[in-house]
Amino acid sequence: MASFRELLKQTKSAIREVDTATAAELIEQPGTVVLDVREPDEYEQGAIPGAVHIARGNLESNIEARVPDHDARIVVHCAGGTRSAFAAKSLGELGYTDVVSMAGGFNKWKDEQRPWATPRTLSAEQRNRYHRHLLLPEVGEAGQQKLLDAKVLLLGAGGLGSPAALYLAAAGVGTLGIIDMDEVDASNLQRQILHNVDRVGERKVDSAKKTLTALNPDVNVVTYDVRLGADNILNIIDGYDVIVDGTDNFPTRYLVNDASLLKRIPVVHGSIFRFEGQATVFAPYEGPCYRCMIPEPPPAELAPSCAEAGVLGVLPGIIGSIQAMEAIKLVLGLGDPLIGRLLAYDAEEESFRSFKVNRDPECPACGPNAGEIVIAEYDELCMPHGAH
Ligand SMILES: [Zn+2]
Q: Is the pTM of this model over 0.90?
């Protein structure tokens, strides 16, 4: 049986080890992954900026989610160079082809006054609150920080906006903007679960803010008690990472589409009618836009607004939750978002169907020959205004 010394010697002979100066040169090169395998309390006191942190004990189970490219150049380090030597050997066994271990580790790096910083970490309360996210290697602490840094704008605090806002707030999306110009009516409560009987007559944005802040005080709720129009939309959406569109009328959807193309902000679209709902993601110039999918609104008599049409109250709960899921995926860069796909739900059949939606090369808003987008109020045809 090998002693620890012998095992370490064998391990070091099986891996590539570099000194801190060589490691620093490698780290300068674009694409290099710095992998810190120390324990969380060591990492929290100081780390190489941009390092991926996976404690040695979780390395094998988490590395493929955090560093999917097996040919990525990886500089692995611990505090002194021993744990990283064993980590480098494991990475080689997992098929990682370009791994070096930094001799001397972070302690030598710091002694040589190379760059390091105290990483942003979650508080103990946040670690507890988001525990089930942290257990997912695809989210983890870095993903949770992304959510806390994210800004998502909800258009409407109604049927779709309610479940979307609740789940986004619960997930720890740090800034939630909500635009709505209505007040809470008792007839909303059948589906708009942000509100309750005590809030009837209150402004919807104020009611939403109370509910969301009570659910998660980490969330900064920014309210816009205005009508979304050509005069204010660019200012309102500016700076948001994702827009969740829960509006129920064509002129607003076209307005949102054109403004989001100009600002290059993805829109998570949702709509409901009676027992059916649909959701998709419009990623500006990457996938189709709303005008690619619906070039012209249907005649008014065929497009009743939500206020006029009946809807089963659970339905917006399902579609709004899908919108929240897609918004979170966009923030985290996770999975396959509904870009170029329309997900259609039928509550009576209890079925989901997915349809491909292509970019329209003739699209007047996002096509290659589209004119300059002018943000203006829309007439009933909702056609984009050409360049003036
Ligand atoms: Zn388009």
A: no
Distance 318 CA to ligand 1 centre (A): 26
CA of 361 relative to ligand 1 center, distance in Å: 8
**Tens digit of pLDDT at every position of the chain (388 positions):** 789 999 999 999 999 999 999 999 999 999 999 999 999 999 999 999 999 999 999 999 999 988 999 999 999 999 999 999 999 999 999 999 999 999 999 999 999 999 999 988 899 999 999 999 999 989 998 899 999 999 999 999 999 999 999 999 999 999 999 999 999 999 999 999 999 999 999 999 999 999 999 999 999 999 999 999 999 999 999 999 999 999 988 899 999 999 999 999 999 999 999 999 999 999 999 999 999 999 988 776 666 554 567 899 999 999 999 999 999 999 999 999 999 999 999 999 999 999 999 999 999 999 998 888 888 888 767 777 765 4
From the list 161, 357, 205, 367, the residue with the least C-alpha distance to 284 is 367
376: left (phi over 0), alpha (psi -120 to 50) or beta: beta
Tell me how far the alpha carbon of residue 100 lies from the centroid of ligand 1, in angstroms. Answer: 47
Does residue 278 contact residue 319 with C-beta atoms inside 8 Å?
yes
Single-letter amino acid code for the residue at 307: A
- Cβ atoms of 195 and 184 within 8 Å: the answer is yes
Phi-psi region of 189 (alpha: psi -120 to 50; beta: other; left: phi over 0): alpha
* Dist. CA 100–CA 90, nearest whole Å: 12
Q: What spacing in Å lies between the alpha carbon of 371 and ligand 1's midpoint?
A: 12
| C-alpha 293 – ligand 1 centre gap (Å) | 7
Long-range CB contacts for residues 260-267, cutoff 8 Å, separation at least 24? 260/284, 261/285, 261/289, 261/365, 261/366, 261/373, 262/234, 262/373, 262/375, 263/234, 263/237, 263/238, 265/237, 265/240, 265/241, 266/242, 266/330, 267/242, 267/243
Gap from CA of 363 to ligand 1 centroid (Å): 5
Beta bridge partners of 179: 155, 224
Q: Residues 15, 92: contact at Cβ < 8 Å?
A: yes
Alpha carbon of 359 to ligand 1 centroid (Å): 6
